[in-house]
Amino acid sequence: MLPIKIKHITLLFLMMLSGLCLAQSKSIQGKVTDTQGVPVDGAAVVLYNAKKSIITYTVTNEFGAYALEGDVKENYILEFTHISFLKQSKTITANQLTQSPIVIDVMLEENTASLDEVIIISTNEVKDTVRLDLDKLKLYEDDNLRDILNKIPNFRLSDDGTIIYKGKSIDKILVNKKPSFEYQNSIALESIEKNIIEGISVINNYNDDFSLDFEENEESVLNIDTKNQSQSIMNGSLELKAGYQDKYEFKGKGFLFSKNLNAFLTNNTNNIGKTTVTAGEVKKLFSEGQPFSRYQGETLSGLFATNENLLKDFYTSTNLTLRNQSQRLKTSGLFYFIAPDRVNSIVQNTSTLDNVSLLNTLDETQAKTTSFLGALSVAYKISNKTIATYNINANYINNKNNSDVRNELFDNGTPNGMNTTFANNRNNIFSSNHVLSVKSKLKKNLILETKAAYYHEGTKLLNDYTISQNNSIFDTATQRYRFDKNQVLGSVGLKYKASDQFISLISATYHKENEEIKDRNLNNTMLIKRSQDNFLVDVEVTGEDIVKGLDYEVSLGLNSFTNNLTVDQIEASETFIPVDLWVDYENRLNRYAVSYTRTRTFNDIVLGINSIQPFNSIWNGTNLFALGFNTSNNFHASYDYDNLFDGEIFSISATYKNQKDVVRRNFVSQANGISEFNFFIADKATDFKLSTFYSKTISPLKYPTKIDISASYNQVEYPAIIAQQEVDVVTKTIAPELRVETITDNFVNFSLSSKVSFSSDEIQNTTYDATYTRNSVAVLLKNKQWKGNITFLYDNNHINNVTYSRKNLNLGLSYTKNNMVFSMEARHIGELLSFFENDAYNSQFIISNGITNTIVNNQSLNYIIFGIKFKL
């Protein structure tokens, strides 16, 4: 569809040029009624040129009247659409061009079929508010928010809760225009049901009541209007499932939406591999703005490491969220308890980059974590011109991982015996972050911003390994370290608005950071200590509607910093210039965005010491690595086409990342199942990605079918070391994807998806090729009481001339009776009942740190469970 879009854009551009002299600015007005003469409120009136490109549009008011103005020529088309009526078009004639204004009245006939054009522009609500008309979507009362948005092509939803609208990510969902779900889309998508929804709208350029700024915010949010908004709404559900081989799932959730307080409590406990909280959302809630260490960052990411091919997959999560807002006080509190316990079994073949076998392993790994994550925010309006905000985050994470590996050893590519390694990795982490900020509007066009922050993190680390051979211990090593980090930050900024087109911010930020690693085996002997002094002066200029729809932001800074290794008495001072630039142009159908950032990242302190790493790895560090930093230049360009009236979207984006002085690991040796790595500085590493997406609902009246087509190309280049010589590694990946789903009102619908990934790794004269294919065909069942699916899955992976295939079958069925839901769910039932003989699951080929790995999961998590759900 890309050539079609390019053609449309090109033709529109040429027509604009050629029509400067011929087109006439005319006013068109009239009245829209039904066959009984009753005015039609909310009908969309769109003026197209001869090539069907939109010139302008409006909607009728409560009296059915409309008026619009634009450049009009002969044979232009005026189109009238409404969800309840058949579409009607009028062609502008030469005679009508002599009228002033042009008057066109129409009478619409009722449409008894469903339409896909469910979005209208409201002229009576807040500026830039788009309301969704849900009346003709044929929704059921138990349809959740994900079901509703999935029926509208203008929204892109992913499994992790991401919602994309007009190329922008929606991260906040309001209820009755009050903050309710912030970075918690996954909970809202699954929990808010049609039975409490009165209406849904998208609010662009959103500012909440506690945002003291010049209203240039570009954020888009989703708003849910509930039925009986004047009354509090309480609802929820309890669900219990159990089945074959002791598999089970318990889910409970409760919600309160009221005038000032919005709150919800959710819990999910199961051993069937389901997670209800996503890594991306937790990262935004608890990580952004906090200087986490690599230990906490990696441990948090591990909480959400999903894998459908586990030997054991226990997961429990509880979330309590409270948000209250009055005229002067806004508070929110979040608490998450997340505790996974997983066992994974994989077969792995490891070789050097020049294809010499190093190690074949059968690895059984257990990952068990207990985590408590909390956040509290209080915003208080000291006056109408001053707002103070205090945020506190506190996290406690206890991580216990172990690995039991049977190794086939090699000597220069020749088999050389067997042994077993057992390793532990334990992290006990506590961190807290406090941020106090005050914003004050000194004058109508002048704002003072101040902030003070303090961060602390303390982590106890244990890493060890034991090598056994012939039932006796051959070798063992244990490392018990303690990591501490403290950071103090202060900033002050002055924001000045000369006009909408020119808003400037001058700020100064200073932060002091201390990090240290001690050896607990040696009475907390200091191994390395790093102190950083960091001072940044930044000038930022923003503006909107430079020309109509064109916004920009330019930020340029001067960053002076000093790194000091106090134990070794080594110091390094540098000056860096960070840059942040973006330009955005948006009109009714199109959005163009370009951005560029230049950033720097300090190397991790662990690079300055020798350490045991999970699992069965030794890193040899040097203190000079702990003094350095890498720089990154990031470019992004995107185009989004969003036709609200035709239910059609298209997007294309390109990103390019260029890193300099990146520290990379390189394989040195492997002995008895323990791999040793050194570090080196890569002068340059690049990452380029091109992505495109197209979605449309075809045949909306007769047999509505939603088609999603996407494709991406990714090329990564970085250096590696072979035989003490630096060589380039180039990885190229092409990944097309197709999804087709019928969305009729029939009891039976169908879904088809196919995703392919072609990967190529080039190292000197050697090329490693891999193809990964995942296909699915599903029969979907749904009416007011019944909901079900039968899904056939087929995976085919081809890695270095070896094929790994897998077939499977998933089933789901539920029946609703009043407030009760009875269900049956089966995953990988083809393996559970031995319909299919599979012995390889989700195989993959990876090149990293100077070695190659072919990984094959040899276990599958399968089950059949029956459940009952009670809606409160």
Q: Helix share of residues?
A: under 10%
Secondary structure category: mainly beta
Task: Give the CA-based shape.
Answer: globular
The major β-sheet equals: 26 strands, antiparallel, barrel
State the end-to-end CA separation: 47 Å
Average per-residue pLDDT, rounded, comes to 87
Q: Low-confidence parts, pLDDT < 50 over ≥5 residues?
A: 1-23, 113-127
Oligomer: single chain
Please, how many helices? 6
Radius of gyration: 30 Å
Strand content: over 45%
User: What's the count of strands?
Assistant: 48
What does this structure look like?
With 872 residues, the chain is mainly beta. 6% of the residues lie in helices and 66% in strands. It has a 26-stranded antiparallel beta barrel. Strand 38 and strand 39 (705-722) form a beta hairpin. The radius of gyration is 30 Å and the shape is globular. 27% of the residues are buried. Mean pLDDT is 87; it is low at 1-23 and 113-127.
Question: In a nutshell, what does this entry contain?
Answer:
By secondary structure, this protein is mainly beta. Helix content is 6%, strand content 66%.
Question: Which helices and strands occur, and which strands form pairs?
Answer:
Layout: H1 2-22, E1 24-34, E2 44-48, E3 54-59, E4 65-72, E5 77-82, E6 85-91, E7 102-103, E8 106-108, E9 119-121, E10 129-132, H2 145-150, E11 155-157, E12 163-165, E13 168-170, E14 172-175, E15 178-182, H3 185-191, E16 197-203, E17 221-226, E18 233-243, E19 248-257, E20 261-270, H4 279-286, H5 294-302, E21 312-325, E22 329-352, E23 357-383, E24 386-411, E25 414-443, E26 446-469, E27 472-499, E28 502-519, E29 525-543, E30 550-565, E31 570-576, E32 579-586, E33 590-602, E34 611-613, E35 617-620, E36 629-643, E37 648-671, E38 674-698, E39 705-722, E40 725-742, E41 748-763, E42 766-782, E43 786-799, E44 802-817, E45 820-827, H6 829-832, E46 841-848, E47 851-857, E48 863-871
Parallel strand pairs: 1-7, 1-8, 14-17, 35-38
Antiparallel strand pairs: 1-4, 2-3, 2-5, 5-6, 9-10, 10-16, 11-12, 12-13, 14-15, 16-17, 18-19, 18-48, 19-20, 20-21, 21-22, 22-23, 22-47, 23-24, 24-25, 25-26, 26-27, 27-28, 28-29, 29-30, 30-31, 30-32, 32-33, 33-36, 34-35, 36-37, 37-38, 38-39, 39-40, 40-41, 41-42, 42-43, 43-44, 44-45, 45-48, 46-47
